[in-house]
Amino acid sequence: MFVRQSNAFMEIEFDDTGVSTLVRSYTEDDFGLEALAGVPPGLSGDGTAALVLGSTTSGSGFYYFNRQTPGDRFGPPTLVSDVPGPSDPFMTENCERLYFSGLGNVFWLQQL
Question: Which pLDDT belongs to residue 86?
Fold first, then answer.
């Protein structure tokens, strides 16, 4: 999971006893973004994909990141087209659905 601490997002994991360990931290530069929303990235259940609300010179909105294994760093961002910018994205573990809320409702998009 990610938590916000000052100007960075800290990726942490928990063991079976509930003790947390810092895995790594990311800044806007690490994610390749000019600005990040205050909400930490949504991490997939297997830890290989993440969604974050941010902006670059090419646009703002949801950005998708992936990596081969949870031990790797995330690669460069990809802007997810046609998705409004709510603050609480959630992606299913298989990355087939993206859930978000807005206007007092919960919405989802199916991967094509």
Answer: 56
The answer to whether 74 and 88 are in contact (CB under 8 A) is no
Distance CA 90, CA 100 (A): 6
The per-residue pLDDT for 111 is 66
* Bridge partners, 98 (sequence order): 91, 109
Burial class (CB in 10 A: 0-12, 13-18, 19+), 32: middle
What 3 state SS string does 33-49 have? CCEECCCCCEECCCCCE
- d(CA 22, CA 35) in angstroms, rounded, equals 23
Q: Would you state the structure tokens that stand for residue 74, as one six-digit string? A: 């995330």
pLDDT digits (tens, 9 = 90+) for 50-68: 888 777 777 777 888 889 9
